[in-house]
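Here comes an entry:

___
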Amino acid sequence: MKSSPGNSAPDDAAKLRALVDASPIGLCKIEQGRFSVVSRAVEEITGYDAKELIGRSTRLLYFSDAEHLAAGQAINDQIAQAGKFRHEVRLRSRDGAELWVRMSGQPLYQADPAAEICLLAEDITAQRRNSVELEAILNTAPIAIACVAERRHVWVNPAFETLMGYASTELKGQSTRAFYENDEAFEAFGRRHYPAIAAGSTIED
């Protein structure tokens, strides 16, 4: 569509900026560990204005040097292995509040990852808080609760450990086979119940 007389059409850079600011997910570019581009969503997540972030080290958003270094190492390790990263990190907002952010992205130049990194930032503070609160409830529940994937224990609460006679964290990653009399009983349970479980049904045994 042509522009009307007296109104110049926005250039490509202005169009790109409009798209970046319209995104509900935070977008930013990091050059040599410093912010060079931040979107409006990043401002909303962190509480900082863009002008307060541009040119500043990413250390600004961390509670300590140790956490900043640990996050950087985790990201660098993923980039070295896969050429991109996805990492959940604890950050500090402008008013000092704790934030949890899920970051994902990749360097623009694989030969020099630190030169320029483009990343997405999603505020997961509420999700993280809900998860912590739920885990606290499950950990203090008087009934035994276990989460299983591929017939291996992913998580169990203290009541389950007490019931089964195992020490704390001893079951994580272990097969549920240990709770069956023999292989036949283990396989029979799977044949009898796993089709219903896969369909989302509740079982009793």
